[in-house]
TrEMBL record:
Domain (RimM N-terminal): residue spans on this chain: 15-95
Gene designation per UniProt: rimM
GO annotation, cellular component aspect: cytoplasm; ribosome
Task performed by this protein: An accessory protein needed during the final step in the assembly of 30S ribosomal subunit, possibly for assembly of the head region. Essential for efficient processing of 16S rRNA. May be needed both before and after RbfA during the maturation of 16S rRNA. It has affinity for free ribosomal 30S subunits but not for 70S ribosomes.
Domain notes: The PRC barrel domain binds ribosomal protein uS19.
Ribosomal protein in keyword set: no
Superkingdom: Bacteria
Domain Ribosome maturation factor RimM PRC barrel: 110-176
Organism lineage string: Bacteria, Bacillati, Actinomycetota, Actinomycetes, Geodermatophilales
Compartments it resides in: Cytoplasm
Species the sequence originates in: Goekera deserti
Protein name: Ribosome maturation factor RimM
Record GO biological process: ribosomal small subunit biogenesis; rRNA processing
Signal peptide limits: none
């Protein structure tokens, strides 16, 4: 399992969300959450870095949930027009500000990106380029022979993550590598 997404963020930061469409006329914005702890990460008073950098940093003034969607108030964003101006802004935090992970089977996305991927017999497959957080977590592996492979990030298929060694071991079910 991983926590937090990777994106186009600078290497010393991680993406924790992306501002979506405005909500209402008073400057609230929807947020595509990309962190396991949105209540902590988006608490009022939190200061978030941004990509593009000229849009931030942004200070959270209000946080509420509406029908399963996170809504944020942001300092200086008081109407629909200014909310639209920050749409599609990536919200970032510095890696140094992330709490240490206590579970050895949980990883931050930035720890996984760049690891080489190999089969259980040592055959190289490619390099992890991203972690997708769809219905399930998927490792995006750039294959050595070209193209991408989406690998479900579950212990049955990815039995080993060796951060110190710089690799993950894949034990894919029959047919996964042909997809």
């Amino acid at each position: 399992m991983s926590t937090g997404p990777s994106g186009t963020a600078p290497p010393d930061t991680v993406v924790v969300g992306r501002i979506g469409r405005p909500h209402g006329v008073r400057g609230l914005v929807t947020v595509d959450v990309r962190t396991d702890d949105p209540d902590l990460r988006f608490a009022p008073g939190s200061v978030l870095l941004t990509d593009p950098p000229q849009r931030g940093p942004l200070t959270v003034t209000d946080k509420r949930w509406h029908s399963g969607t996170l809504l944020l108030g942001i300092e200086g964003v008081h109407d629909r027009e200014t909310a639209e101006a920050v749409r599609n802004t990536q919200l970032l935090v510095e890696v140094a500000d992330l709490p240490p992970l206590e579970d050895p089977d949980v990883f931050y996305d930035h720890q996984l990106v760049g690891l080489s991927a190999r089969l259980t017999d040592g055959t190289p497959v490619g390099v992890v380029t991203a972690v997708r957080h769809d219905a399930n977590e998927l490792l995006v592996v750039a294959r050595e022979e070209g193209g991408e492979l989406l690998v479900p990030f579950v212990s049955a298929i990815v039995p080993t993550v060796d951060l110190a060694g710089g690799f993950v071991v894949l034990d894919p079910p029959e047919g996964l590598l042909e997809l």
